[in-house]
């Protein structure tokens, strides 16, 4: 059965972009879907051979300019990749997704020419990977005031503290560390981002054990024990790390919204097939019941609305006209709606839904990350409400 989401994507895309999306879908069907269950049951991260093939397809360099060895694409290409790969597995899709939107993107936006020349070619080829060090054990939604600190030491900086929930940590060559550099600075001008090699003295990585979501994705804790880096390791401007962080997360939130829709697309296709095949009561399919049809239609409407809204915002993002709260709102709504419908999808399919081979439980589980990742939905609601009540927003500031 063809993917229902394609019905909504094709009219919104030019022929070349839709062909690219279909090519990644074919890769996902051939390389991910047949092996996914064994990876999960064996508690295995995405294998190196799959990452290598993604690199050969150019998926790590979609948005990197051709002069640096990339594909010269836009954020739209990245979103299409997420929709194609996330259909079977969010946790596989997030590896090239986070490598681009959280790793490569800040370097593209804020890196100096020498930094770009040093890193972008290998990043685009998938030979190198950046991880964005933002979340901390004591800092979740309050990411603007990091506990990781960087103190000036002559012409260098010394970094101390710990980052956690760092996606792609296992494969990372470097970590972009968001650190406090001016505790007395005004809000938004207290932190700085640094590019730190993962093999630098004092950097210690450990995979976070016991995680039950995004099973094929590496999620690590990275500790910095008096790590000394030169001044030219700064990404962007000193004490403007918040700007780097906020700009980076806008693109990442669009990607998370896309993963939510990818899960919804899979669930809709799985359910509409099942309810036509599942025979019950007088030897007729359960799809004849109005309540079952209601769930299918609600899923279809949410998918159509979400795809249309997301692609509109992605084009605004690429044009540089998207408002910050727009990325937050689409991420909130797509993750929330897909999560609500995931429960109903499992309800109409019954007991088979809890089996890993059926697939619904995987997406139900992974949608949790979409609700809390790239800024939790609760925190993002406050951000998104501020333009609606400017007087209250001024008080909060």
> What is the CATH class name of the largest domain?
Mainly Alpha
Shape: globular
SS class: alpha+beta
CATH superfamily of the largest domain: Butyryl-CoA Dehydrogenase, subunit A, domain 3
Helix content estimate: 40-55%
Query: Can you give the mean pLDDT?
Result: 94
The biggest sheet amounts to:
4 strands, mixed
What's the CATH topology label of the largest domain?
Answer: Butyryl-CoA Dehydrogenase, subunit A, domain 3
Low-pLDDT segments: none
Total helix count?
12
State the distance separating the first and last CA atoms: 52 Å
Question: Which H/E pattern describes the elements?
Answer: HHHHHHEEEEEEEEHEEHHHHH
- In percent terms, what proportion of residues is strand? 5-15%
Strand line-up in the sheet with most strands: 1-4-5-8
How many strands? 10
Domain Acyl-CoA oxidase/dehydrogenase middle: 132-227
Cofactor: FAD
Family: Belongs to the acyl-CoA dehydrogenase family.
GO molecular function, one term: acyl-CoA dehydrogenase activity
Describe the structure.
With 397 residues, this protein is α+β, with helices and mostly antiparallel strands. The chain has three domains: 4-129, Butyryl-Coa Dehydrogenase, subunit A, domain 1; 131-239, Butyryl-CoA Dehydrogenase, subunit A, domain 2 (Beta Barrel), CATH 2.40.110.10; 243-396, Butyryl-CoA Dehydrogenase, subunit A, domain 3, CATH 1.20.140.10. 53% of the residues lie in helices and 15% in strands. It has twelve helices and ten strands. Helix 4 (75-86) packs parallel to helix 7 (241-277), helix 7 (241-277) packs antiparallel against helix 8 and helix 9 crosses helix 11 (377-385). The longest helix has 37 residues, at 241-277. It is globular.
């Amino acid at each position: 059965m063809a993917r229902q989401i394609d019905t909504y994507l094709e009219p919104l895309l030019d022929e070349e972009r839709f062909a690219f999306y279909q090519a990644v879908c074919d890769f996902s069907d051939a390389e991910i879907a047949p092996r996914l269950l064994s990876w999960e049951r064996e508690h295995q991260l995405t294998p190196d051979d799959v990452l290598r093939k993604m690199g050969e397809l150019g998926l790590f360099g979609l948005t990197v300019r051709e002069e640096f060895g990339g594909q010269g694409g836009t954020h739209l290409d990245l979103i299409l990749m997420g929709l194609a790969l996330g259909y079977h597995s969010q946790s596989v899709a997030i590896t090239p997704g986070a490598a681009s939107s959280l790793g490569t993107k800040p370097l593209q936006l804020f890196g100096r020419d020498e930094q770009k020349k040093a890193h972008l070619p290998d990043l685009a080829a998938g030979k190198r990977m950046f991880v964005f060090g933002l979340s901390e054990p004591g800092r979740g939604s309050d990411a603007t005031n990091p506990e990781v600190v960087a103190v000036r030491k002559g012409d260098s900086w010394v970094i101390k503290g710990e980052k956690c929930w760092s996606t792609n940590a296992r494969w990372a060559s470097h970590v972009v560390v968001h650190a406090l550099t001016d505790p007395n600075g005004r809000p938004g001008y207290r932190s700085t981002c640094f590019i730190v090699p993962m093999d630098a003295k004092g950097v210690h990585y450990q995979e976070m054990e016991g995680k039950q979501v995004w099973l094929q994705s590496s999620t690590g804790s990275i500790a910095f024990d008096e790590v000394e880096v030169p001044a030219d390791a700064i990404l962007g401007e000193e004490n403007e790390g918040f700007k780097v962080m906020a700009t980076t997360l806008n693109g990442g939130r669009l990607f998370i919204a896309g993963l939510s829709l990818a899960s919804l697309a899979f669930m809709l296709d799985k359910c509409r097939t099942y309810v036509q095949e599942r025979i019950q009561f007088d030897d007729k399919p359960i799809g004849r019941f109005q309540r079952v049809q209601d769930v299918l239609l609600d899923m279809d409407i949410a998918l159509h609305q979400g795809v249309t809204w997301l692609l509109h915002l992605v084009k605004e993002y690429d044009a540089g006209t998207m408002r910050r709260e727009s990325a937050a709102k689409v991420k909130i709504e797509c993750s929330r709606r897909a999560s609500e419908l995931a429960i109903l999808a499992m309800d109409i399919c019954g007991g088979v839904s809890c089996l890993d081979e059926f697939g619904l439980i995987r997406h139900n589980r992974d949608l949790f990350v979409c609700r809390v990742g790239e800024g939790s939905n609760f925190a993002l609601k406050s951000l998104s409400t501020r333009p609606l009540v400017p007087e209250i927003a001024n008080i909060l500031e």
